Amino acid sequence: MSELLNYGRMAETHWREHCPRMVRDLEARGRLVPALLEAQERTLDEMETLMRQFKRQGLSPQQAHDQAWELVREKYLLLPPEQPT
């Protein structure tokens, strides 16, 4: 995948607001877009795996999606805010 989709754009917005030092560092090294693409891809991959598991456990597709989102969103996209320096 080589373009930012909703998850990648969500991550960029969140990172710029809550992790500005990380964003500046990634931009300075030319790594911001690759990092966003990686976060997006990892989110999609992990959510797909979890949703399959949850569906096998009897959850509806929407329930499976919502549960997977709850578990994955803060791992790659909605990172904790940076501490002030």
Q: Keyphrases for this structure?
A:
85 residues; 0% strand; elongated; 4 helices; mainly alpha
What secondary-structure arrangement, pairings included, does this model have?
Blueprint: H1 6-18, H2 20-28, H3 32-56, H4 61-76
Helix pairs in contact: 1-3, 3-4
Number of domains: 1
Radius of gyration from the alpha-carbon trace, in angstroms: 14 Å
Order of helices and strands: HHHH
Shape: elongated
* Poorly predicted residue ranges: none
* N-C termini distance: 35 Å
What's the number of extended β-strand segments? 0
Please state the structural category.
Answer: mainly alpha
Mean pLDDT score, rounded?
A: 96
Q: What's the main sheet like?
A: none
Tally of DSSP helical segments: 4
Strand content: under 5%
Q: State the share of residues found in helices, binned by percent.
A: over 70%
Describe this structure in words.
74% of the residues lie in helices and 0% in strands. With 85 residues, the chain is mostly helical. The protein has one domain. It is elongated, with a radius of gyration of 14 Å.
